[in-house]
Amino acid sequence: MNKAFTKEDDGSTPERLPDLPISGHPNHVTPQGLAALKARHASLEAEVNRLREGREFLDDLHPLAVAERDLRYVEARLNTAILVPPPEGPCDQVLFGATVTVADEEGRQASYTIVGEDESDPEKRLISAFSPLARALIEARVGDIVEWPKPTGVVELEVRRVTYRA
C-alpha cells in the first residue's frame, strides 16, 4: 500500500477515548449537586488547558484524552441538568433532595439524602433517587413504614424525620 494512503500516529493529537455512558434517567440535581458539577467542569477545563499547553513535553497523551473525555461527560450532564430546589416551608414528605432519618426493625437509625446520580456517594449516605432505597422512601411521610427490597430480603423502615437543605 502506498504510504500516502496510510495514517501514522505521530503523537501530535491525543487519542479520543469513547464517551462515558450517560444515564437514561432524567438528570435531576440538587442545588449542591449543580454547584458541584459546575466546579468539576471548571476544574476539568483548567486541567485540559494545562495538559494541552504542555503536551509537547508529555511522553504519554493518555491523561489529556482522559481529561477531555471527562470534560465531555460533565458538559453533557450540565446541559441536561434539571434543578430541583427544596420545597418552600416545612415538608414532612420524602421528595428529591430530602434527608430522611429512618429506623429499622431493631430501632437502629440511619439518615440518607436523596440526590441525583452524579451527586450520589453511598459512603456519605447520599443515595441516587433511582436506587431501591430511595424508590422505597419517595413520597413517604414521617411515621410511615416502607419496605426496602434488599438481596437478603425485605427490610421494613420507619420514617422518623424528613429535612431539606436550604
From TrEMBL:
<dbReference type="GO" id="GO:0003677">
    <property type="term" value="F:DNA binding"/>
</dbReference>
<keyword id="KW-0251">Elongation factor</keyword>
<dbReference type="GO" id="GO:0006354">
    <property type="term" value="P:DNA-templated transcription elongation"/>
</dbReference>
<dbReference type="InterPro" id="IPR023459">
    <property type="entry name" value="Tscrpt_elong_fac_GreA/B_fam"/>
</dbReference>
<feature type="compositionally biased region" description="Basic and acidic residues">
    <location>
        <begin position="1"/>
        <end position="10"/>
    </location>
</feature>
<dbReference type="InterPro" id="IPR001437">
    <property type="entry name" value="Tscrpt_elong_fac_GreA/B_C"/>
</dbReference>
<dbReference type="GO" id="GO:0070063">
    <property type="term" value="F:RNA polymerase binding"/>
</dbReference>
<keyword id="KW-0648">Protein biosynthesis</keyword>
<dbReference type="InterPro" id="IPR036953">
    <property type="entry name" value="GreA/GreB_C_sf"/>
</dbReference>
<dbReference type="Pfam" id="PF01272">
    <property type="entry name" value="GreA_GreB"/>
</dbReference>
<protein>
    <submittedName>
        <fullName>Transcription elongation factor, GreA/GreB family</fullName>
    </submittedName>
</protein>
<feature type="region of interest" description="Disordered">
    <location>
        <begin position="1"/>
        <end position="28"/>
    </location>
</feature>
<dbReference type="InterPro" id="IPR018151">
    <property type="entry name" value="TF_GreA/GreB_CS"/>
</dbReference>
<dbReference type="GO" id="GO:0032784">
    <property type="term" value="P:regulation of DNA-templated transcription elongation"/>
</dbReference>
<feature type="domain" description="Transcription elongation factor GreA/GreB C-terminal">
    <location>
        <begin position="90"/>
        <end position="164"/>
    </location>
</feature>
<dbReference type="GO" id="GO:0003746">
    <property type="term" value="F:translation elongation factor activity"/>
</dbReference>
